[in-house]
Specification:
The chain is of the alpha+beta class. Helices cover about 35% and strands about 15% of the residues. It has five helices and four strands; from the N terminus they run αααβαββαβ. α2 crosses α3.
Length: about 160
């Protein structure tokens, strides 16, 4: 999804606290929302409502766990496409409709759409990439992982 940058006042201090805290993980407890809300000094319903709003407003694109597909017998693959600008929205909608698409980014480059496929089997990468090619009429370049690097990426909200 493409859109303009958010205005500086799009989120308040509590939303920023939520974003910063949740990047460090979500507690695996019987009441994870209640426990997280207590750390933030708000109630559980408020936390859930704020996360829902962050998602609905497009401030966050997803809320959920990241699984290591390879550790469970699956696979990851970085993919890229050269999408004509006039078709970008159409193609991004088709690509993102696949549950195997972990995330999708637009870049200012000939290869302007980059996304990650995560499948439950290594063969699923090829199956999904071919399905996307069939739906869009565009080639999906596949860049399978050769080696893994952990960079500890965090964004300060």
């Amino acid at each position: 999804m493409r859109r303009a940058p958010l205005p500086p006042d799009a989120i308040d201090a509590t939303d920023r606290q939520i974003l910063n805290l949740l990047q460090d993980g979500f507690p695996l407890t019987p009441f994870p929302f209640r426990d997280t809300a207590a750390r933030l000094g708000i109630d559980e319903a408020a936390l859930i409502a704020r996360i829902r709003n962050l998602r609905e407003e497009g401030i966050i694109t997803r809320f959920g766990p990241f699984f290591d597909a390879e550790a469970m017998g699956g696979a990851f693959c970085l993919c890229a496409m050269a999408v004509p600008g006039v078709r970008f929205e159409e193609v991004v909608t088709l690509v993102n409709a696949h549950p195997e698409v972990a995330h999708n980014y637009e870049r200012a480059h000939r290869l302007n759409m980059w996304f990650v496929l995560a499948t439950d089997t290594p063969e699923g990468i090829e199956t999904t990439a071919r399905a996307i090619e069939g739906e869009t009429g565009l080639r999906v370049l596949r860049f399978p992982k050769q080696r893994e690097f952990f960079i500890g990426f965090r964004v300060q909200a």
